Amino acid sequence: MAKTQIGNEAILKVIDLDAGYAIKHKNKLVKFVHAVDNVSLEIRPNRITGIAGESGCGKSTLAKVIYGAIEPPLEVKRGSVLLKISDEYKDLLKMSRAYISRNIWWKFISYIPQNSMNVLNPMKRIKSIFTEISKFHGLEVDEEDVVKYIKEMFKAFGIPAEAINAYPHQLSGGMRQRVVIALALMFNPSVVIADEPTTAVDVVTQLGILTALKEWQKEKKTTMIIISHDMGVHAYMDDDIAVMYAGNIVEKGSVEDVFEEPLHPYTKLLISSLIRKGEKEFKWGISGSPPDLSNPPPGCRFHPRCPYAMERCRREKPPITTIDKDRIVSCWLYEKG
Amino acid sequence: MHPLVRYIIQRFLRFLLTIWIGLTIVFIISRAMPFNAADLLVNRILSYGTRLSGEEIEAMRRTIYDLFGLGAPIHIQYFKFLVHYLTGDMGPSLAYFPERVSNIVALALPYTIFLLLMASLITWVIGNLAGVLAALSRREKLSRAIEYIALGAQPIPFAVYALAYLMLYVLVLGLSLPTGGIVQGKPFWYILLDMFNRSLPPLTAIVIWGWMGNFLAMKNLAMKIKNEDFIEFVKLTGAPQNVIFKYVLRNAFVPQYTYLLLSLGMMFTGNALIEYLFSYPGLGMLFYTSIVNADINLMLGIAYMAIVGVATATFVLDLTYPLVDPRIRYPGQR
Amino acid sequence: MSFKDLIKDRVFIVSLSIVVGLALYTVIYPAYFTKVDPTKWYTYPQGIPPCPQFPFGTTLTGQNLADLVPVALRNSLTIGLTTALTSTAIAIAISALATLIRRLSTAVMTFIDVMCTIPPLPILIILIFTWREYIAIPTIGLILSITGWAWPSRALTSILSSLRERMFVFTAYLCGLPLYKIVAKEFMPFLMRYIFVHFINLTLWGIGMETTISLFGAMKMETPTIGTTLYWALRYQAFILGLWWWYLIPTLFLIAFLVSLYTINMKVDEYLMT
Description:
heterotrimer; B: mainly alpha; C: mainly alpha; MetI-like fold
C-alpha cells in the first residue's frame, strides 16, 4: 500500500453519524432529540474547518461526539468517528472512555469549550492547573518546563505573566478564555475543536483570540474545527466550511466557494445577514425558528422557512448532491430528476 | 490595608461583639427574674442546711438580692456586671458559697471545649466525606438508602436518641462509664489523656448521630457542584474520577466550613445533654448540678462561659478561613 | 408535582392522617375519656405493665399512662407550635428589616449571625427555670422563640436579598408602590414555601428543646410533657427496672408524630417548589 501523502487525506472522518439526546422519565423513553442526523464529514489536515449554523442546530452536539465526550442523555445511534493516529484510522466511538480520556484527549485532540470563562477551578492557581493536566495523561513534566511554556503562550496570547500564580477569579473573563486556549494547545495536539470561541467576549478581544489561533495554526499546522453561529468568524478563520441545519449538513465546501456562491437557501440567508463594508441595505433576519429536533418536519427540514420551497421539499428529504470535488449540497434545487 | 489584616480585624470585632451581646443577654435574664423568687431562693438554699455563719448568710442574701435587681439603679448594675464578668468575676456560687463561680467553671470548661471541638470536627469530616462519596458514586441504591436513613433520623429529637444510646451503651452492651471528679494536680499529659479517655463514650454518641446532618447538607451541595462548568471541563481534559472527587470536595469545603463555624452554638446544646447523661465532667454536667441546687449564680456563669467558649472556638476557626478560601487572601476583579 | 399528585400521594396521606389523628387524640381523649386528673401522682397502683385495665400501664409515680400520654403529647405539641408561630413571626420581621432598609442591612445581618453563634440552651434553661412557677405551657414556647428565630432569619434574609435584586421588584418600586405592598404582592408567594418549611422545622426544634430542657430538670416538672415523663422515668430507674412501657410508649407516640410531620414538610415542599 503506497504511502499516503501528508496534507490531503482526511485526518478526521465522520461517517454516517446519528446521535441525539434520550429524554427518559422513570426509565421509559419519552422523546429522542435527534441532534445529529446522518452526518458525514471529512476534515483535512492543516486547514481550519468551520461548522456553522443557528443555535440548536446540533453543531455543539456534533463537536462533543467528534471529541468523544459522550455521556447520558447523549447517545450515539450509529456511525463512526475515525481519527488518524500514526497513519492509521482509529474509531473513537469504539474506544473505552477511560482509554480516550487518558491517551487521546489533549495529546491528539483538544477541546475548547463554550463559555470558557467559567471552566477553571476557582480553588486552583493557573500554574497548578497546567501542571496537573500532564499527570492526567501519564506525562511527567518538569515544573520549570511548564512555566517556560506558559510564559511563551501567555506572551503570544496577550496574557500578563503574573497570571501564572493567580487564581481564576483574579483574572478578567477575556483573560480566562485565553488561558483555556493556552491550556488546550499545551501538548500541540493534531486537532483542536473550538466551540463558540468568541461568544461572551467583546469584539476587540474576539479579534485577538481569533488572530492568535490563526497564527498558531499556521505555525504548528494544527487542524482546527471552529464551531460558531457567527458567519463573520467563519469568514475570517475558515479554509473549509460546513453548514448545519436541524441536525443535517446542508452545504459543504471551501470557504471561498461557499461565500462567493452559496448554494443552499439557508446558507444564502446566513451570508446575506452579514454586513459588508460599504453596504447600506437593510438587513433582514431569517423568519421563523429552528424546528423541534424531537419531532422534525417531514421532507426537507428547512422547508417551512425556505423561500424556494417546492412541493417535493415538503414530502421527501433531499439527497446529498456532489457538485464538485469537495463541494456538496443537500437541496432539491440542485438535484436533477 | 492588606485584605488579610482587614479580615482578621473584622473577625476579631465580631468576636468582641458576640461576647458583648451575650453578656447583655445574660445580664437581662439575671435581672429579669420574678420578684418573689428572691426570698424563696434564699430560704430554699438555707433549707438545704448550710454551715454558713450569720455574716455569710447575709452576704449571700445580698448577692441574691443584687441578682434580682433589688439594689442600685439598673445602668450602674449593668456597668458593674460587664466589668465583673469581663474580668472573670462571676460572683460566688450559691450552693457552694462562698466558692467563686469562676473557679468551679474553670475546671469544667476545658473538658467541654475539648469535646465540642472533637465532636464537631469528626462529625464534619465523616459527614462531608460520606456526602461527596454518595453524590459522586455510581452505586445509586446504596447512596439512596443511606440518604433515607439520614433523613429519617432528622425529625427525631437529639434528646430521645441520647437516652436511647445511653440505654444501649449501659444496659445492652454493658459498658461502663468512667466516673469520678475532675482530675487535678497531675501532669498536663496525664490530664489530656484522661480527658480523651473520658470523652470517648460521649464522643461516639455525638458522632454516630451527628454525621448524618453534615452528610445530607454535603450531598446536596456536591450534587450541585458536580454539574458545574469547571467539573465538566476538567473531565474533558482527561481527569480521572479521583481527581473529580478532590475537585468537588475542595470546592464544597468553603461553604461547608462556614456551616461548621455557625453550627458550633447549636452543637453545644446536644453536647451539654450528652455530658450530663454520660457523666462527663464538662459544663453540661455542671449545669445539671446547678439546676438541682437552684444555684442561679453558677447557671449564669455557665451561660456566660458557654458563650465565650463558643465565640472563641468560632474566632479561632475563623482565623483559619483564609487558608481555605483563596478569595479572601486575594480579592478578585469583580 | 401538582396539587392533585400531592393529594393522591400515599405517603402524604398516611403522614397527614397520623398528624391529624394524633392531634385530635390529644384533645379529645383527655376531654372525654379521662376521669381522674392524670397529673396527680399516686392515684393508681404503681409500676403495672400494660393490661386490659391499664392499656399503657402505670408509672412508678402512680400515674395511668393511658391518661398521661395524650396530655403529655398535647403539652409538648403546644410548646412546639407556639415557638414555631412566634419564631417565624420574629424571623419574618427581622429579615424584612434587614433586606428592605438598606442602611440597617449590615448591622442586622451581623446581629443575626451573632445570635446564631450564641448557644441557646443555658439562656433558655435559666429563663424557664426561674420563671417556671409563674408561667403556663404556651409561654414556654414563647421563651424558646427568644433564640429560635436566629437560624430561620439567616435563611430568609439571604432569600429576600436575592429577591430584592430581581427586576420585577425594581419595576414595582419605580411605580411607586409603598414598601408593605411590595412585600405582600411580590415577595409573599415565593416566600410561602420557605416560611412553611421553617415553621415545621421550628416545631420540631421546639419539641426537641422542650425534651432536652425537661431532661435537665428545668421544666415545670409536675406538668406532663413527653420530656418530663422521660425525666421521671430516668429518675425512677425505669430503664434499669425494665418498665419499658413508661418510656417507650410516650416516645413512640412522639416519634410517630414528628416523623409524619417531617414527611408532610418534605412533600409539601416538593409541591411548592414547582
